[in-house]
């Protein structure tokens, strides 16, 4: 099990921050029809009830954007993942299909507005993650994005370096079809509200669509 810590610099910049995590043993798959039925249902609901300019006003997304500003990043240039995913759907671009674990995390992020780090737990170095703020020229390869400038972004670091930000996670610890243990971290820059619901949603979807063989909610 991992120890999850919040640095003093994050506590100062984002004093209401709270987080929750799910660790589980899983069996991944390339595609889940049931999960994609849920994703398509959410897409229809979002695109028929929301205007694109309203996305950044969703409370959790708005709080994450404010955290970016307090940490030194422009949220208009580096969007939180939940906001970017919703904007993608509103522009009529379908959600990309990766694999069941990644698609599942994306759905929970879309539903809740939380930016969620989804990691292959076996690729994390050491047993401790600390949430801090990215430094100038700190190396970070975003998934599908190449080198990402994480200066001023909230970032989780393991014993080697950064593995996850609300904008993108790192290639080094990404989930893939061979992932057998998942660590999913829900980031509440608006505080504790909605965290329990988000992690319970993750656990429920894992049990339905990934043959999860056990999970545990970890609060910090």
Automatic annotation (TrEMBL):
<dbReference type="Pfam" id="PF03483">
    <property type="entry name" value="B3_4"/>
</dbReference>
<dbReference type="GO" id="GO:0003723">
    <property type="term" value="F:RNA binding"/>
</dbReference>
<dbReference type="InterPro" id="IPR020825">
    <property type="entry name" value="Phe-tRNA_synthase-like_B3/B4"/>
</dbReference>
<protein>
    <recommendedName>
        <fullName>B3/B4 tRNA-binding domain-containing protein</fullName>
    </recommendedName>
</protein>
<dbReference type="InterPro" id="IPR005146">
    <property type="entry name" value="B3/B4_tRNA-bd"/>
</dbReference>
<feature type="domain" description="B3/B4 tRNA-binding">
    <location>
        <begin position="62"/>
        <end position="211"/>
    </location>
</feature>
<dbReference type="GO" id="GO:0004826">
    <property type="term" value="F:phenylalanine-tRNA ligase activity"/>
</dbReference>
């Amino acid at each position: 099990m991992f120890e999850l810590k919040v640095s003093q610099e994050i506590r100062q910049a984002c004093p209401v921050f709270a987080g929750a995590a799910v660790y589980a043993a899983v069996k991944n798959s390339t595609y889940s029809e049931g999960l994609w039925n849920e994703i398509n249902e959410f897409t229809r609901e979002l695109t028929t009830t929301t205007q694109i300019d309203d996305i950044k006003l969703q409370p959790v997304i708005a709080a994450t954007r404010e955290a970016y500003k307090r940490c030194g990043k422009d949220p208009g240039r580096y969007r939180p993942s939940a906001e970017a995913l919703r904007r993608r759907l509103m522009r009529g671009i379908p959600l990309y299909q990766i694999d069941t674990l990644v698609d599942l995390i994306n759905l929970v992020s879309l539903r809740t507005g939380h930016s969620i780090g989804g990691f292959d737990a076996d690729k994390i170095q050491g047993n401790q993650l600390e949430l801090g703020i990215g430094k100038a020229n700190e190396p970070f390869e975003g998934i599908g994005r190449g080198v990402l400038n994480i200066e001023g972004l909230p970032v989780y670091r393991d014993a080697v370096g950064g593995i996850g930000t609300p904008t993108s996670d790192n290639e080094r610890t990404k989930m893939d079809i061979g992932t057998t243990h998942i660590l999913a971290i829900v980031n509440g820059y608006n505080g504790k509200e909605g965290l329990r619901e988000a992690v319970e949603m993750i656990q429920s979807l894992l049990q339905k669509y990934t043959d999860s063989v056990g999970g545990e909610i970890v609060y910090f």
